[in-house]
Design brief:
Blueprint: H1 3-31, H2 34-60, H3 75-104, H4 113-141, H5 146-152, H6 157-185, H7 189-218, H8 224-234, E1 240-252, E2 255-264, H9 270-287, E3 291-299, H10 303-306, H11 319-322
Parallel strand pairs: 2-3
Antiparallel strand pairs: 1-2
Helix pairs in contact: 1-2, 1-4, 1-6, 2-3, 2-6, 2-7, 3-7, 4-6, 6-7, 8-9
Length: about 325
């Protein structure tokens, strides 16, 4: 992803959430609305989350060290995972607790115009932040649906900001509905019910974020499209006749590890094999600039053995063949 695009979306969300959090706490102080308190804590948690994303992006740019030879690209995944934990614990669980307490001990909302005015302001500010995140995401999303983009994006920042902003907008609408019904009926229990819905929404979003960032932390492949591009670039049909098998993994959003076994001609000399590997690496990096680390192992591909049957152990490059090379 574009680092500048992701940072722009994060900064926009951070500015909006800080302003909204301050307004919500003021509204809570005047009205006593539990929805406003839950939403204020939610916005404060979101502000902390955006700060975590910025810290993660900065730490990920550190150079590789002997202790961490593949660099620190996954710092961005770690901090995105921390975001899901904060959203779940601070935002979601607090909202559930506050909603339960308001239902158990309901009271009328004082100075109703404070929560209503702040909620309208917050919806406008969150819409601006959400629009920025959508615009930045559209430059990377291509033909993917929004669900596919969130699930397949290798850079965590934009999906995190998108889901946070979406959750914030829906939460604000829920809070507005709960507060409006509580004002209309004079029954504060509706304020508590709205708060419970906000908590459930935040926990759901946190679980989705945790699942996606966990997958990135475990290590995801480059994806079918990039894998195919690498396969095509590796083979020139002359010195490298075939790509026998390959594994790719994201070490960070913009850094891919490529490990592959390539077939070279049986009559090739050691010097020719070395030249073939160097040329293949250059072609791969040209086709996929994010393929920063490439390890190619030469082998001899035997058509007769490969055609012997479906047993992968009989095929050069299969599981049974790796032990002998």
């Amino acid at each position: 992803m574009s680092a500048s695009g992701g940072t722009k979306a994060i900064v926009a969300a951070l500015g909006a959430n800080l302003a909204i959090a301050a307004a919500k706490f003021v509204a809570f102080a005047f009205s006593g609305s539990s929805s406003m308190l839950a939403e204020g804590v939610h916005s404060l948690a979101d502000s902390g989350n955006q700060a975590l994303l910025l810290v993660g992006g900065k730490k990920a740019r550190r150079k590789a060290t002997p202790e961490h030879p593949f660099g620190y690209g996954r710092e961005r995944y770690i901090y995105a995972f921390l975001v899901s934990i904060v959203l779940f614990s601070v935002g979601g669980m607090f909202a559930l607790y506050e909603g339960y307490e308001k239902i158990k001990h309901p009271h009328e909302i004082d100075d109703w115009y404070w929560p209503i005015g702040v909620l309208v302001f917050a919806i406008i500010a969150e819409t601006f932040s959400f629009r920025t995140a959508i615009r930045e995401s559209n430059t990377l999303r291509g033909e993917q649906s929004w669900t596919e983009f969130v699930r397949r994006a290798k850079a965590p920042e934009l999906p995190v900001v998108l889901l946070e902003d979406l959750g914030a907008l829906v939460g604000l609408i829920l809070a507005l509905i709960g507060v409006a019904i509580a004002i209309a009926t004079g029954d504060g229990i509706w304020d508590g019910i709205g708060t419970l819905f906000i908590g459930a929404l935040l926990i759901l979003i946190a679980l989705v974020l945790a699942a996606e960032t966990k997958s990135l932390l475990l290590g995801e492949s480059a994806g079918a499209e990039i894998d195919n591009t690498i396969r095509e670039a590796a083979v020139d049909g002359e010195a490298v006749t075939r790509l026998i098998h390959m594994r790719t993994q994201h070490l960070g959003p913009e850094e891919i590890l490529v490990a592959a076994k390539i077939a070279v001609r049986p009559e090739s000399t050691a010097e020719q094999v070395a030249d073939a590997i160097d040329a293949a690496e250059e072609r791969i990096r040209t086709a996929v600039p994010s393929a920063r680390l490439i390890y190619l192992e030469p082998d001899i591909y035997d058509e007769a053995v490969a055609a012997a049957g479906p047993d992968p152990a009989k095929t050069p490059g299969g599981p049974g063949a790796d032990a002998g090379h």
